[in-house]
Design a protein that fits this description.
387 residues; alpha/beta; Aspartate Aminotransferase, domain 2; seven-stranded mixed beta sheet; three-stranded antiparallel beta sheet; globular; binds pyridoxal-5'-phosphate
Length: 387
């Protein structure tokens, strides 16, 4: 009998990241000895805080690293609870925290607990591309709403109401500060959105992964406006721990047990070594604030330097470490533009196409998470290239 392999699922047919082409090409050029300035990476250029690394080293030498409570070890949840008091002046009981394998696992768990197949989830375009992938793979329907300067690149109750006119909306997912735009919703606009969703019986999911990295305006957690929202956060960005794959959620009471049950089956527990490091990272404010001050310097440099080179349509950079630039004056196709810039200027950046299927070809994302010297070098190389 001929061997008949099984079939690939329809749900796995999600869009690949076109930006990977730029990454692969940058690596190829570096193999050939070219010096490339990396402004495409969405991660800090420095390691986890020293005390976090030391805590992990000590744990490796002195204890067995094993499974933990599914929701995360108690010292970590206690430190997270203290962190909310210090950062936002909010008391959040440690039992409302669920520690996850990066915020990515948080999305999976939250969506599985809150939604059923076919449910429509509103998100912004431009936006973080994996949202679309996760939502589609779980059998949910991403409803992307184009946002622009008229709403300062954010969702509004009116925009959600429009989406509701086409069919029921079960969830609204917002990142603020956002990737790729770097823009942050002012607290009163965030409150409007949370209140609207609450009145409409829509889950509000707040991706607060770029909290801590805010340069303009006041950051506020969506938790300030309701305890019925889903907060998703991570140690990846402010805490410089992308590779440790560790994050957290704050959940309304009703979702705690469903998420715990799902997490038991899907992940058993988040990685213990990373939990130990993360517990210590929450006590490293000084070191992390120094890293943030470095991003702030990079941001200043680029906000002055990029417009001098003709990149004069930049979105407001309230937070995160991205500058989203309208590059349509250079090329209508940012994928081609970034490839040419990589080859000719030796600067790697991310084309907007993955973030926004409609207008992304007109935009390019520059990350300033690298060193100040790299940012200076990028400006020199771009200047030379653009003549
Ligand atoms: C807006 C946003 N959310 C979530 C993530 C995923 O982060 P992690 O799974 O490392 O916590 C990223 C990563 O770049 C992001 O930009």
């Amino acid at each position: 009998m001929a061997f008949r392999p099984g079939q690939v699922s329809k749900r796995s047919n999600i869009a690949p990241f076109l930006a990977m082409e730029v990454l692969i090409e940058a690596a190829r050029l570096e193999d050939q000895g070219r010096k490339i300035v990396h402004m495409e990476v969405g991660q800090p250029g420095v390691p986890a805080p020293e005390r976090a690394r030391n805590a992990a080293k000590q744990a490796l030498d002195t204890k067995l690293i094993g499974y933990t409570e599914t929701a995360g070890v108690i010292p970590l949840r206690e430190n997270l609870s203290r962190y909310y008091l210090e950062t936002y002046g909010r008391e959040v009981d440690k039992d409302r925290f669920v520690v996850t394998t990066g915020s990515s696992a948080g999305f999976n768990l939250a969506f599985l607990a809150a939604f059923d197949p076919g449910d429509r989830i509103v998100l912004t375009a431009p936006g973080y591309p994996a949202y679309r992938g996760i939502i589609s793979a779980l059998g949910l329907v991403p409803v992307e709403i184009e946002v622009g300067p008229e709403t300062r690149w954010s969702l509004t109750p009116e925009l959600i109401a429009k989406a509701q006119a086409d069919g029921p909306v079960k969830g609204v997912l917002v990142a603020s500060p956002a990737n790729p735009t770097g823009t942050m919703m002012p607290p009163e606009k965030l409150e409007e959105l949370v209140t609207y969703c609450g009145e409409e019986g829509i889950w509000f999911i707040s991706d607060e992964i770029y909290h801590g990295l805010v340069y303009e305006g006041r950051q506020e957690t969506a938790l300030a406006y309701s305890d019925q929202v889903i907060i998703i956060n991570s140690f990846s960005k402010y805490f410089c721990m992308t590779g440790w794959r560790i994050g957290w959620m704050i959940l309304p009471e009703v979702l705690l047990r469903p998420v715990e049950r799902l997490a038991q089956s899907l992940y058993i527990s988040p990685p213990e070594l990373s939990q130990i490091a993360a517990t210590a990272a929450l006590e490293c404010r000084d070191e992390l604030e120094a890293v943030k001050a470095g991003y702030a310097r990079n941001r200043e440099l680029l906000l002055k330097g990029l417009p001098e080179l003709g990149f004069n349509k930049l979105l407001p950079v309230d937070g995160a470490f991205y500058i989203y630039a309208d590059t349509s004056a250079f090329s209508p196709n940012s994928l081609e533009f970034t490839k040419t810039m990589l080859h000719e200027a030796g600067v790697a950046a991310t084309p907007g196409v993955d973030f926004d299927p409609v207008h992304g070809a007109e935009f390019t994302r520059f990350s300033f998470a690298g060193s100040y010297e790299d940012m200076e070098q990028a400006l020199v190389q771009l200047k030379h290239w653009l003549g």
